[in-house]
TrEMBL record:
Organism: Vibrio furnissii
Single GO MF annotation: lyase activity
Record InterPro entries: Prolyl-tRNA_editing_YbaK/EbsC (IPR004369), YbaK/aa-tRNA-synt-asso_dom_sf (IPR036754), YbaK/aa-tRNA-synth-assoc-dom (IPR007214)
Name by which UniProt lists this protein: Cys-tRNA(Pro)/Cys-tRNA(Cys) deacylase
PANTHER family to which the protein is assigned, alphabetical: CYS-TRNA(PRO)_CYS-TRNA(CYS) DEACYLASE YBAK (PTHR30411:SF0), CYTOPLASMIC PROTEIN (PTHR30411)
Keywords of the record: Lyase, Protein biosynthesis
């Protein structure tokens, strides 16, 4: 069990856990998950941390489809910041309590402002990391937003 799974259970949110054998040679954790689970990459979302206004410990979370790229200008706008940069992986791990490639938007050590890409609203369910590489949790977008107090916003460049 991970904090992400424990949170979903505690809040009695309908969810499904998916496991797969993580391949350490794979460079894209999100695309690996989609491929291993036989899921459309548009239904598997990655969790990215970004820092605001050049302050490396002022962080927010973006949850976007694994086949998309985060648009940092849109991320800054969503967080009401002047600029956004990708977070330092070590700081991301320390802040969330999860390893890079297994960072879940759920059950992080520190609650951060969270933004989910708008395309999630078109899906009945989506998958996000459940807190470790090779482990995904599938749940309804509205439940993910409720558990993370997230907003749905446009965050992506066209794929």
């Amino acid at each position: 069990m991970t904090p992400a799974i424990n949170l979903a259970k505690k809040k009695k949110v309908s969810h499904t856990i998916h496991q797969y054998e993580h391949d350490p040679s794979h460079s894209s954790y999100g695309l690996e998950a989609a491929q291993a689970l036989g899921q459309d990459p548009k239904t598997v979302f990655k969790t990215l941390l970004f820092c605001l206004n050049g302050e490396e410990k002022n962080l927010a979370v973006a949850v976007i489809p694994v086949d998309h790229k985060l648009n940092l200008k849109l991320a800054a706008k969503a967080a009401h910041a002047k600029k956004a940069d990708m977070a330092n992986p070590e700081i991301a791990q320390k802040t969330t309590g999860y390893v890079v490639g297994g960072i879940s938007p759920l059950g992080q050590k520190k609650a951060l402002p969270t933004f989910i890409h708008l395309s999630a609203l078109e899906l009945p369910t989506l998958c996000v990391s459940a807190g470790k590489r090779g482990l995904e949790i599938e749940l309804a977008p509205k439940d993910l937003a409720m558990l993370t107090r997230a907003q749905f916003v446009d965050l992506c460049q066209d794929a």
